[in-house]
Amino acid sequence: MHEHDVVREMALWIASYFGKQKETFIVQARVGLLKIPKVKDWGAVRRMSLKNNDIEEITCGSKCSELTTFFLQENQLKNLSGEFIQSMQKLAVLDLSGNENFSELPEQISKLASLQYLDLSFTSIELLPVGFQELKKLAHLNLASTERLCSISGISKLSSLKILKLRNSKVHIDASLVKELQLLEHLQVLTIMITDLAWELLLGDERLANCINLSVNSRVPTKAV
Length: 225
Known about the structure:
single chain, 225 residues, alpha/beta, Leucine-rich repeat, LRR (right-handed beta-alpha superhelix), two-stranded parallel sheet, 5 helices, disordered C terminus, Leucine-rich repeat, LRR_R13L4/SHOC2-like
């Protein structure tokens, strides 16, 4: 499944419920929020969008046991409480992109057993916690423009991964990483910056080469694969 297919499916999914389950939505985008809004009954909330605000931290202990979709992109986020993360047992979609000061995922991210879509692009994430490997249902992982992220060791444990975006991250494509990528049996799309060495390593695996969406960072043949 390609990126536009994922976006389209998400849009249709949201549209199909809007109006039918209006009480389960919270949408407060671009309203200048400095903190997460007060909610009378968190247990009734299924989907929430707080994108394009000025929220710096979420430390509340609210139990969001029914939340499946959380859009928090383009805020000023620095701290995301592990307790808050752990309460979202049904979360399938989490978008934290564009939070340029967000540098650390809580270890409790490993508790999100239902997570399928995670966007950390344009954040300052420096490493992925060990528990990240427990996200067995994760299908779409966006790490593009994570300029402080140097390693994604253990990525092969994400057995459901279909889309992996690494373009403009600091992750170095070497032999050990290629071996891990080869273990991702469901991988369909891989976006990367590529060097001469990485080009040679990746072309050694036909299936992996067919997944690649290239950004050339060296004098290598350009090819739309």
